[in-house]
Structure formats: C-alpha cells, structure tokens
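Predict the 3D structure for this chain.
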Amino acid sequence: MHDRISRTGYENIRLDRTGQAEAFDAIGDRYDEAFPHKEGQLAAGQWLIDALPAGSRVLDLGCGTGLPTARQLAGAGFEVVGVDLSYGMVELARRYVPDATFHRLDIADLRPGGPRDLGRFDAVTAFFSLLMLERAEIPLALRTVRHILVPGGLFALSMVEADVDNFPIPFLRSTIRVSGYLREDLRAVVQAAGFAIAQETSYTYAPATSDVPPEEQIFLTCRRSD
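Done. Predicted structure below.
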C-alpha cells in the first residue's frame, strides 16, 4: 500500500487548504447570486448528457451548492456523486439536489491508495475546482481523476485563464487563493495527465458583483486516453 501511495506524487507536496473551505462556508448562496449565468458549465454538462447512457455514474468534484451541474446531471437520470471541501456547500447541495449523494471530501482523499474510495465513474466534472489548488498539485489531481474514471471515461473541466499560482484574491467579501494557466499551458497539463481533449470553448464572463473582476473562462471536454 505504501508503494502505491508513494507513486501518486502527493508525498512530495504540502497540502495547504487553510481558509479555503471556510471562505466558501461564509459565501454560501452568494456564490450562485454572483454567478447567475453559467452557459459554459451547462453546455459542458449537456455534452455529457448527450454522450452517456442514463444510469451512468458521474462524480462532480467541487460540487459547490449543486447548482447547476449536479441538478442538471441528476435530472438526466445519472447517478450523481458530489464532493466538496466546504461543509456549508455540501449542506446546500443536499438541500437543492436530493436525488444526488454528497460528501465533504478533499480531492486528495480520492487519490490511488488514499483514505476514500468512491468507486469508478463513467464521467467526472471539475468546474472551477482545480483552480483552488496550488499548481504543483493540479497534475496530481488530474491523475487522480484519470484513476477514478473507467477506461474511455469522460471528463469536463473549467478553469479561469490566468498565469498565477496560489495567488490570494478578494472574493465575495472573503479571500481565496487561486491558481491558473494560460490556455496553451492548460491544454498541455491536461494532455500530459492522460486525457484527449475533444472540445475547447471559452467565455468572457462578468460576474454580477463588483467584488469579482471579469474573467476568461476555459472549458475543456475530454476523454480518458487508454
């Protein structure tokens, strides 16, 4: 078991989630109020709906309040499991999407040989959740996603285009730390983790609050390379 864990790479980095979950506990419903238009996220969810049969297992990493993704996918007849580090977000998700299952977990918990095994999934979504990690951890998280997926499984993710690493920003009257890539670098990191990119789209997004600046959102829909 020790050898299996050591090959994940997590033993070489220090996980620091200080304040991240607490910030989202405090934000609560204000997140959906600040980001009311989620066309890119809904379109990526529809891509999964069109590609997968009803009853497929889908994991929503960083599920937040469960809106819109967990609700969209559960409504399509999928078995949806959501995970989030924030207790507050998980409680809201359980209330808003009672047909899905939610756990308060860290993505690192799901690594090969890690403390939690939720089984294998036909698809995984990670909408704006990987940007909460330091850059050194993002490739490890992507390899964890690949491990969770069945062969040929689907992966939909989004990031904000930004050349930053663990950078503190004000966010809805809280402070969070974010990481990002320029789009070519993001593609390279995703492909190196074992994914074939099927489609890339981007949206210039202006949140409905002056506290959060406009951003360029990148959405990638991918398939696990086997």
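The beta strands are 57-61, 79-84, 101-104, 121-127, 149-160, 167-171, 174-178, 195-205, 215-224.
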